[in-house]
Design brief:
seven-stranded mixed beta sheet, seven-stranded antiparallel beta sheet, 26 helices, alpha+beta, 24% helix
């Protein structure tokens, strides 16, 4: 039942199944006086739980109303009493039923209480005192039930009435905000990195060394001494942005050879993906981007190569040439006119088009082809025509004028029925002004065959012997049989093979389906793939899909030549045997294509994004149906029909085979983004039909012409000689203009290739000299280390970062220059090598001079890591805070003696509770209150003997007044110690807060361990009075409106606000994107947003 309950809310069906099982009975191990195997069932009629050993006898029953609690898990000592229960039963299969009319969950005797109190860090009073307390809470026979124990606990914890009286006088008990830490106790070697990141650390150092076959990381402060580099990177990727979404900087200490550096670069890119910053946010920027602009990014600090002279800039010229060009179509075997643009070294061309007059005239002259009376070329045409007309008239009682038109010996003939027999009349043609005309009588001609027949269907044909009007057309019995696109004996596989050889969308054929006399299929190309539609003959009609009817297959083809069949694709290229033979050598690929379903016209769902792969090795085709490609080439529209050989489009070839082991997958997201970017850069946009990369072609000027054109410009692919594009223009002068632009592009490509080879050679030399791999160098954007002359501040770049050892900082005479540097560029401080015990230095002096990254040993729980944690508890614990405004002025001098008092803080420690227990002894605690920052001051309470549960420093307790000169970088620190038998102090707990996050009043201070992680229930009760120097407290806190008014008057003074917990709580509904500073009053929180000067952050 527990297992089912963990699956979330149950459905009604599950509930009914559980109810059924309970009514039928379930065999369970029941622990009472002994462990027994019993059948337990629920009897719904009597509302009882019954248990039996055998099917014929009930051993006991329990009324459901007597059940007080059902507790999941092994939460009963009965489980531990039986070896069987302890060894065999899992936690989530156990539960305990508590029942009885006089049910009591638990009681506590006087002796048990005396044993319990020392465990709670409380010295046991005399037995007489405890008995008196038992009587006060109403206990009988020296036993406490839960309610009585609760009363006794309150008596012990809150026996000092004077504290309660003080709370009655003051109206608040606000809990001060605190930094939440993760209690990580895993055995993983990456634990230290995870812990730092989840504590809010935004800069992590990776000390990388050469390992066996892969890079490793050495560090001496975890349980393992060597960690796999990839494991650490994966841990960082998983935990980098759990606590904060602001950027993480990885400082790489590089000790790996070049080959393993390349592995590191690959791992960074594969694991981090889009999180890894590899390009500047703004290419023309003059300062660092803000942390908000870099949200969710991981930045690498690593040495960057400086290769001069090898880089080549991108040619940004747009629209170098545009206009009309004619391109030879090897499918149609004709020249088609396209609008073309040369841009970015590529030729973009739109759909072909014809001049409107020519297009209309051609359509006008071809109108007869779709008419039922036109029979085209017929075998034994005269005899066949007579037979067709005779049979038609005999069957339907034909009248004079029944007719057909046929082709015969390069001209047309009109055959018609008159006077019971068939007669023939030759249709003559002539040419005038380049246009063909048709006529029967010399005195009356027509521009097309169609208009001539239409005329004689409406008007009589007159001659010497008779006068006749054409009446009924004789249709072709099966007109599709004469069409080159129809195949009566072609398999599905063969049809696909034919279509794959014709690299054009709109190529089609119709075939009769095998074994079905009245069933056909149209096979066509769309979106680079072969599609099929079933055509069913019902009576005299041909049905495509379910509703579209045609009188013949010819009519169907003619219709879809004008209307789209699939998406926007019309039937355009009839796949005839002659066309197939021209395009490819004979091959037998029929068995490779197996598609199980037919598609419906215009009802096909949009396909999923087609896959793209990248070549990792070059491949040269060994068969005509294979692709050739170079390393790095992209192959699109990949279909994986078997494991070893895939099909795809590349270099003008469509759906050709290639070996899968030569390529690697490219993610859909990257491909879609690339496609979108390509479309944005495409000068023709959606009108673009194709692109030719001129830089990858050889250019030829065919002066002798080609395909009936006197001058032709040919672009031939360098990798595939068979792939070429023939271009022509209206005039020789126009073609020469295109030639000059294309020639210039090919020469630039040759020059780029030479420069690239030179760059590679130079890169190899620089890599060996600098011991930095180019792949790692390319990943470095902003944090570029500068090691030479780093103490000189006369010139620097905002992308650089300078690292200093703690004891080799710029001298005091360079402080102002260092401050100026830190306003534009980054600096990092790290511990000296002599700190082999992982101790820490004081970070305050470094924060005071504007250093951004002050590296501390997070594994050491000391005062300085606690100050660091307190500083970054501000600003929503994002890991970044704005430098104090006073540090951004030239007059600021951190070494100057501070004379102006900003605040006086009165602190009085009143009580503590639930302090940690040191070993087996009971704590004797005392509290140190310390002011840390520009000035140091400390106060210590008296020792409270033998009570770590609820020590109280009774009133009038001592208090201390701290003077604050620089609240921006000053901290108030509470340290709870205990005095041992030798009068030595031992650390118990601490709490450290920025002074500008503290408010007046009685405060409950949550205590933390040395790593700034929560200690459950442990806290101090203190009184704090924050007074602005020279002002009365009442004036500072009298009202929120007065506080707002004072804010404008004393803009140079710092007003107090809540720490990060309250900032986060207040910011949740608003979802601000920028770093904020939050000011609060006793009535409500107000937010003031300030512009962030880039790079003025601590991290």
């Amino acid at each position: 039942m527990a297992h089912w309950g963990q699956q979330g809310e149950m459905t009604e069906y599950k509930k009914s199944m559980i109810k059924r099982d309970m009514e039928m009975g379930v065999v369970m191990t029941v622990f009472r006086q002994k462990a027994e195997r019993l059948t337990v069932q629920v009897i719904m009629e009597t509302r009882q739980v019954a248990w039996t050993r055998t099917a014929d006898k009930t051993d006991g029953v329990l009324d459901l109303f007597e059940i007080r609690e059902i507790r999941a898990g092994r939460n009963s000592k009965d489980f531990e009493r039986f070896k069987d229960g302890k060894d065999k039963h899992d936690e989530n299969t156990c539960f305990t039923i508590f029942y009885g009319s006089q049910f009591v969950l638990s009681t506590l005797s006087l002796g048990e209480l005396k044993a319990l109190l020392p465990l709670l860090n409380y010295k046991v009073p005399s037995s007489r005192t405890l008995k008196d307390r038992f009587l006060e809470v109403g206990a009988k026979k020296d036993r406490l039930d839960f309610e009585q124990f609760h009363k006794l606990y309150n008596l012990i914890m809150f026996e000092q009435n004077e504290i309660l009286d003080e709370f009655k006088k003051e109206s608040c008990a606000f809990i001060l905000g605190y930094l939440t830490g993760d209690q990580l106790r895993s055995e993983s070697s990456t634990e230290a990195y995870v812990r730092c990141l989840r504590l809010g650390c935004r800069c992590v150092e990776l000390d990388c060394w050469e390992g066996p076959g892969e890079p490793i990381i050495y560090h001496g402060w975890t349980r393992t001494t060597k960690i796999k580099f990839e494991d650490v990177v994966k841990a960082i990727n998983e935990h980098a942005f759990v606590t904060s979404e602001f950027p993480v900087i990885l400082s790489i200490e590089e000790h790996c050879p070049l080959d393993q550096q390349r592995q590191m670069a690959r791992i960074f890119k594969e694991v981090f993906g889009d999180k890894l910053l590899t390009e500047p946010v703004e290419h023309m920027a003059e300062q660092l981007p803000s942390p908000t602009q870099l949200k969710g990014k991981i930045i690498l600090k690593h040495k960057k190569l400086n290769v001069e002279g090898g880089a080549t800039s991108k040619d940004l010229r747009k629209g170098q040439k545009q206009g009309d060009l004619e391109m030879w179509d090897p499918v149609d075997q004709r020249w088609n006119k396209h609008y073309c643009v040369i841009s970015d070294d590529k030729l973009y061309y739109a759909e072909e088009y014809e001049e409107e007059e020519e297009e209309e005239l051609r359509k006008y002259q071809d109108l007869h082809c779709s008419e039922p009376w036109f029979h085209g070329h017929m075998k034994d045409s005269r005899l066949m025509a007579e037979r067709l007309i005779h049979d038609y008239c005999a069957e339907l009682g034909g009248r004079d004028g029944t007719f057909l038109v046929r082709e015969s010996d390069a001209h047309f003939t009109l055959s018609f029925w008159r006077g019971g027999r068939v007669q023939h009349c030759r249709i003559r043609t002539g040419c005038e002004g380049g246009h063909t005309y048709f006529y029967l009588a010399p005195n009356l001609s027509f521009p097309s065959l169609y208009t001539m027949i239409q005329h004689y269907r409406e008007n009589p044909l007159r001659c010497q012997d008779f006068e006749l009007r054409l009446t009924d057309p004789v249709p072709q019995p099966n007109p599709h049989l004469k069409e080159g696109w129809f195949y009566s004996n072609l398999s599905r596989g063969q049809a696909e093979d034919y279509l794959l050889r014709i690299p054009r969308d709109g190529a089609f054929l119709i075939r009769q389906r095998e074994g079905e006399a009245d069933s056909y299929a149209i096979t066509f190309r769309g979106d680079g793939k072969v599609k099929h539609c079933r055509i069913q003959k019902e009576g005299n009609m041909y049905l495509l899909g379910t509703t579209t009817e045609f009188e013949s297959l010819v009519e169907l083809v003619n219709y879809f030549k004008k209307k789209p069949l699939y998406r926007k694709i019309k039937l355009r290229y009839p796949v005839t045997p002659k066309l197939v033979d021209r395009f490819s050598a004979q091959k037998d690929c029929a068995s490779l294509y197996e598609v199980k379903t037919y598609v419906e016209p215009n009802e096909i769902e949009p396909s999923l994004p087609v896959s793209t792969v990248r070549a990792v090795y070059p491949y040269q085709a060994k068969r005509p149906d294979e692709l050739s490609f170079s390393k790095g080439a992209l192959i699109h529209n990949v279909s994986k029909e078997n494991n070893d050989w895939w099909k795809g489009d590349h270099g003008g070839k469509v759906q050709m085979f290639f070996p899968s082991i030569y390529v690697e997958e490219v993610s859909n997201n990257t491909r879609l983004e690339t496609k979108g970017q390509d479309m944005e850069d495409n000068p023709l946009g959606e009108l673009c039909k194709g692109v030719v990369d001129i830089s990858k072609c050889n250019i030829q000027n065919l002066k002798n012409g080609k395909n009936r054109k006197p001058h032709v410009l040919t672009l031939q692919d360098k990798e595939q000689d068979s792939l070429q594009f023939d271009l022509a223009a209206d005039t020789l002068e126009e073609l020469f203009e295109w030639y000059k632009v294309a020639w210039d592009i090919t020469q630039r490509a040759i020059s780029k290739q030479y420069n690239r080879e030179q760059e590679i050679r130079q890169q190899e030399e620089v890599e060996k000299k600098a011991e930095v791999a180019r792949e790692m160098s390319d990943l470095v954007v902003y944090c570029q280390p500068r090691s030479k002359e780093k103490d000189r501040f006369d010139s620097y770049n905002y992308k650089e970062i300078r690292s200093f050892v703690e004891n080799k900082m710029p001298g005091k005479s360079r402080t102002k220059d260092f401050l100026q540097y830190n306003r534009k560029s980054l600096s990092r401080i790290y511990p000296k090598g002599q700190r082999v015990e992982s101790s820490n230095y004081d970070p305050y002096p470094l924060w005071a001079v504007g250093c951004h990254m002050v590296a501390l040993n997070f594994q050491t729980a000391d005062k300085y890591t606690q100050l660091n944690s307190a500083l970054f508890s501000l600003n929503g614990r994002t890991g970044y805070i704005l430098q104090p405004e006073l540090m951004r002025y030239d007059i600021y001098d951190p070494q100057q003696e501070k004379k102006k008092i900003k605040y006086n803080i009165v602190v009085r420690v009143i009580a503590a509770r639930h302090l940690p227990k040191p070993g087996r002894s009971i704590a004797s605690p005392f509290v140190e209150v310390e002011l840390c920052g520009h000035t140091e001051d400390k106060f210590k309470t008296i020792v409270y003997r033998d009570n770590g549960l609820n020590p109280v420093w009774k009133s009038p307790a001592d208090h201390v007044v701290f003077t604050v000169y620089e609240p921006e970088l000053t901290f108030l620190r509470f340290v709870v110690n205990e005095e041992d038998m030798f009068s030595d102090p031992n650390f118990l707990a601490q709490a450290t807060f920025p002074v500008k996050g503290i408010r007046s009043g009685y405060r409950s201070v949550p205590l933390k361990n040395g790593y700034s992680e929560d200690l459950e229930l442990a806290s101090l009760l203190v009184y704090i009075n924050v007074q602005q120097a020279g002002k009365a407290e009442e004036e500072l806190y009298s009202s929120s409106s007065q506080l707002k008014k004072k804010q404008a008057e004393v803009s140079g003074e710092m007003f107090l606000y809540d720490t990060h917990t309250n900032i986060q709580r207040a910011a949740l509904p608003r979802q601000h994107n920028n770093l904020m500073r939050e000011f609060s009053t006793s009535e409500r929180h107000k937010t003031k947003e300030k512009k962030i000067n880039n790079s003025k952050f601590y991290s």
